[in-house]
């Protein structure tokens, strides 16, 4: 009698899996308020426990980070946050992940930390934060530009149409008037051209508006991730 061939073992079904889908461990803000025209690129991060509000036509580039871990964050209309820029109280280089966790834990019994949580960061309309800049400022006025690698300390106030040049550092609680230009790290002057010639300011804002339209054509919008 010839031996019967052993029945073929069924191939495993590779289409199904019991392994749960990986989810992000980063805390999500208690509320995210986004205008319908906001553009949030893939890999941009919005994290924290406080509210985040982003106004119309604002753009968050890939790997930009908005954190409300210690206080709320508000971005006005037409803001642009470039790659690897960081916005929010506690985003400074002196605070690593471990110290931020300890700050949140100690807030339950610390009045000083509670006051920090109430400060927040507010960007006015058409503010530009360039790559690798860190913004912990309390307020940035309309049309100001924070250039590459600049650092704005906690609680500082920047006026309207200011320019913080690359790698400059604005100390905590500093106050800069409108049209201030910070250069060579800490030198300051007033931009009389923008201040006294409104037609040049209008031209600058028109170029900014065209850039916003260009970003909408070039950058895929991942905003559905944050509105679903």
UniProtKB/TrEMBL annotation:
* Residue span of region Disordered: 1-25
**Gene Ontology process terms (BP):** mitotic spindle organization
Q: Which UniProt keywords apply?
A: Cytoplasm, Cytoskeleton
Which InterPro entries does this one have?
Answer: DCTN6, Trimer_LpxA-like_sf
Please state where this protein is localized. Answer: Cytoplasm, Cytoskeleton
Family assignment from sequence similarity:
Belongs to the dynactin subunits 5/6 family. Dynactin subunit 6 subfamily.
What are this entry's molecular-function GO terms?
A: dynein complex binding
State the taxonomy lineage.
Eukaryota, Fungi, Dikarya, Ascomycota, Pezizomycotina
- Role this protein plays: Part of the dynactin complex that activates the molecular motor dynein for ultra-processive transport along microtubules.
Q: Which PANTHER family match?
A: DYNACTIN 6, DYNACTIN SUBUNIT 6
Q: What species is this protein from?
A: Neocucurbitaria cava
User: What protein name is recorded for this chain?
Assistant: Dynactin subunit 6
Using the record, list the residue span of the signal peptide; answer none if the entry has no such feature: none
An example of a Gene Ontology cellular component annotation for this protein is: dynactin complex
